[in-house]
Each structure stands twice: as C-alpha cells, then as structure tokens.
Amino acid sequence: MLRIYSQSLGCPKTRVDSERLLGSLGPVLTVSSPEQADLVFINTCAFIAPAVQESVQAVLQTAEDISGLPQGKRPFFAVAGCLPGRYGIDALASEIPEVNLWLHTNAIDGWATQLRAALALPETSDGRLLSTGPAYAWLKIGEGCRHQCAFCAIPSIRGRYVSEPLDALTAEASALTASGVKELVLVAQDVTAYATDFGSDPRVLLEKLLTLDGLERLRLMYLYPAGLTPALLRFLRDAGKPFVPYFDIPLQHAHPDVLSRMGRPFAGNPQEAVDRVREYFPDAALRTTMMTGFPGETDAHFQTLMDFVEKNRFLHMGVFAYQPEEGTAAAAMPDQIPDTVKEERRDALMELQNGISAELLSRYEGQRLDILVDAPSGEWPGLHTGRAWFQAPEADGLTYISGPGVEPGALVEADITEARDYDLVALA
Predict the structure, then answer these.
(1) What is the three-class DSSP state of 402?
(2) Which residues pair with residue 42 across a beta bridge?
(3) Quick count: other Cβ atoms within 10 Å of Cβ 347?
C-alpha cells in the first residue's frame, strides 16, 4: 500500500484538488511525517506574498527533512498548485532540484496520470481521500476566474473560469453523502458563475444536489454580488432545506470610488446586494471580506467602509490589509498607502466587527440548535468542536459541545449555554 505524506496549503479549492488526486492513486495509507512516506505531496498556494513564503518554506523544509535519508529510502517528492502556476516549473525546478515532479495548475486534470506514471502505479477509478473528517466536505465546482480584479493574481495563475462537468459533480456529491458526509460546501472563485460558461446558471447543479439522500446542509461560499440575481435568490428561498441561508459575499469595500479602482464587477453600490439578499432571506447569516489600504483609499473612503459595516451588521467578517502583488494592476497604481495606515484601519474595522459579532451571537444564548459535530477539541475528554447552521467550516467561529451522542459526524440538538466574541458553547 502506498504511504503518503501530504500538505495542502491555502484555500479549500486547493484541498479539494489534493483530495481528488490522492483518492485516484488507489489504496493508500496516510502517514504523519515525510520520512515515513513513499510519496510526499505538497499542494501550494501563491495568492499573496505571505502564502508564497509559506509554500516555499514548506517545500524547502520537507526537502531538508528527507535529504538525510539513504538514497533508496527517500520518498518521491511532488509539488503542485499555485506556486508552479505562478512562477513556472522551469524556474522552480532549477531553484529546488530536490523536487522530483512539479505539477502545474494548467493541467490539473492530468496530475493523477503524471503521478501514476512516475510511480508506476496501475490505473484506478477516481475518488476522494477526505481530510476533513466525517461531518463535511468541500465540493469544488469551478476552476479559474472570470473577473479581472486589480489586486488579484488568481486569473493569471488559474486561468479563465471553467465549470466542472455537471454529471461528474453530481456523482462526486452522491458518493460523499453516501459515505456519511452530512454537509457539502460549494466552492469556486465565484460560485455564482457556475454553468454560465455553457449558457446556464448554478440552478442546474443545485437542483441535483438538493435532492441527495443524507444531505443535511448545503452551503454556498464565495458568492459574487452580481451573481446573486433575484432568480437565484428566489430559487434558493423556495428550495428550503438542506440549503442553509448563509451567504458569503466578498464585498472588499463599500465606497464606489475604491471599488471602481479595484475593478470589482459590482462597483456601483454594494448596499444593493446586501438588501437584495435580505429581501429574500430576512434572517440570513451574512459573511463578507473587506480590504483596507487599497491604493488611493482616503480617510473619507475608509469612514464610508466603517459606516457600512456598522449599518449592515455582518455576522462574520474577515479583514485584510492590502498587499501589492507582483504582476497585478494595483501594484503599479499611484497613491499607495503606508503599511502602518493599512494595518491601523484593519485593526479599527476588526474591533468594530468584534463587537457586532459578539452581540449577534449573544442572541443565541438559551436557544436549542442543531450542531454538526466536526472533531474532538483536545481541551478535555468529551469536548468536541462543531458548528451551527450559521458557522461555516474553517472560516467562522466554532461551537464547543459536549454531552450524550456527541461524536464526529453526528448532528445533535444542543442548548447554547454561552456566547463568546466568535464562538458558542453548547450542551447536548
């Protein structure tokens, strides 16, 4: 049996690529260190400079870890993903010769074939080697991006947007739920773009997924505002369960001048997108991401952003200080903002959001909610981490839960006994 040590860095889309690849290699055994493996596989991220640094460090550290092994005992070392997609295989191969195989993002469908050939493995059927535990799984529904935001390198790394085949996604989702997965989380660079490249829209996929046996939650992440049309929102409202009314809308800013400079596809008025969602889902859980310090952002622009966040009271929000990325249009813009100012604005926005999140979560104290249990917490025996319907995996806060029937993969009713700034405490 092939022994595999793997790391998947960056976003959930990278994780899905890794799980699909490793699941297509036949029977495997995952091990906890590179020295124990026959195959070492690192799937990298290169979206922003810190991610590049993390990926390079992971590759170099792994190369060092296995370099001391005897020649015949060294594992085959493969590196994939956005790092070779951004910088090219030739350049990286000359800098890090310890890597046996580089896998480019322009040939993801061929990764398994390349690895099987390199390792002399037989052909096998496709599958998924889940790394998320039994409760949930990510379902990547598209590759690349159809937008050209000024700050983002993804289109140059991953290419134009291409939807995954409908039949293949339906089969993959069916296999996941049949294995006991209760929550599917749809991801792409823009989930609302699904099927637009072949003249349709996301409803063609959602109609298939909503009827899957055993599916308790269907969650949609990365929803561009322009794609949240009345037709899609009406469809989701009428669909009901297992769809959860959780909307992750990456707005990035609130001032039209900044949005226009960013090249966002909805540069006019982001308030319209929020209002449209709440028109159809008054009690929706809203998540967003915001960016501070984009070139040309004035104090007045930032105040507009602060006012927008205070008014709309998102349950969850991530805030990032802008970083110029090589090769992007924004990196060459005038009026770059000093790092100290970017970070001060980020901290101020996060402080505001901290209070909003704590207040909104406090309303759940004393309620009885369904909690999907993810994993043991490690803090003390019997305590697990899980999530209410308004908590997305690996993005939002957690619910710490204990009591009868609490085990990974279980969906249990529990009393919310305490609300913290971002987390809940519950007793089943």
Answers:
(1) strand
(2) 7, 79
(3) 13
Give the separation between CA 384 and CA 374, rounded to whole angstroms. 7
Domains in the chain with CATH codes: 2-119 (3.40.50.12160), 136-362 (3.80.30.20), 368-427 (2.40.50.140)
Amino acid of residue 168:
A
Considering the entire predicted model, what is its pTM?
0.95
Name the nearest CA neighbour of 236 among 196, 209, 213, 203: 203
Torsion sign over Cα 394, 174, 7, 109: negative
In degrees and rounded to multiples of 5, residue 361 shows phi and psi of -70, -30
Rounded distance, CA 161 to CA 92, Å? 26
10-residue averages of pLDDT along the chain (428 residues): 95 95 93 95 93 95 92 92 94 94 93 94 88 96 92 90 96 96 97 96 97 97 93 96 97 96 84 96 97 98 98 97 94 97 98 96 97 94 96 96 96 96 95
- In one-letter notation, the amino acid at residue 124 is T
171: Cβ contacts below 8 Å, ≥ 6 apart: none
Structure-block tokens of residue 387: 């999530």
Which amino acid, one-letter code, is at 116?
R
CA atoms within 13 A on the CB side of 375: 10
- Beta carbons within 10 angstroms of residue 88's beta carbon: 12
